[in-house]
Write a structure and sequence with these properties.
binds S-adenosylmethionine; seven-stranded mixed sheet; 6 helices; globular
Length: 167
Amino acid sequence: MQKYDKIYAKDASYFGHTSKQFTTLFSNLDFVSGTILDLGAGQGRDSIFLAKRGYNVIAIDSSKVGLDQLRERVEEEDLPIEIVHADAQGYTPPQDLDAIVADRFFHELPNNSRVKLLQRMIGHLRQGGYMLIADDKSVLPNLRDTLKKEKFEVLRDKNGILFTYKP
Ligand SMILES: C[S@@+](CC[C@H](N)C(=O)[O-])C[C@H]1O[C@@H](n2cnc3c(N)ncnc32)[C@H](O)[C@@H]1O
């Protein structure tokens, strides 16, 4: 059993509700439908929030326990969430994305894999799409540099939240 399988098995709502910062940013998007990839979705708190706002969500995580808990909610509430149990490092989205969220996900990866994955994923983001990273401040500098090199516009960069726009 993986680390997160054990954690989630003990508490079906381990990370609690979606953060206020997150809900505020995603309550003001300039598109009302589309597909959002939730990287390292865990038990799916953010996926559920986004699906309830009307977006189609792809929730990918390597924890089967977390995703099984999410699947129960998806079935009970008939939410538009596609669940993918896989290592995100080997995953290719099936279509262009309108946004990608990575809520406390990148710090889970080895240092030298983070930028590589970010570069690959933003290649699947449409022009005008959004990339939201919420993570430890120590993880953000390399990710921020990568997004800036790719000419992403920074919309918010505060308190561990990096919210950017692909021009
Ligand atoms: C700190 S949790 C955050 C979960 C969720 N984003 C949230 O905010 O509630 C990190 C998640 O990343 C997942 N994870 C770690 N490495 C992964 C990988 N290589 N591929 C997919 N998921 C991964 C873990 O299983 C865990 O659910």
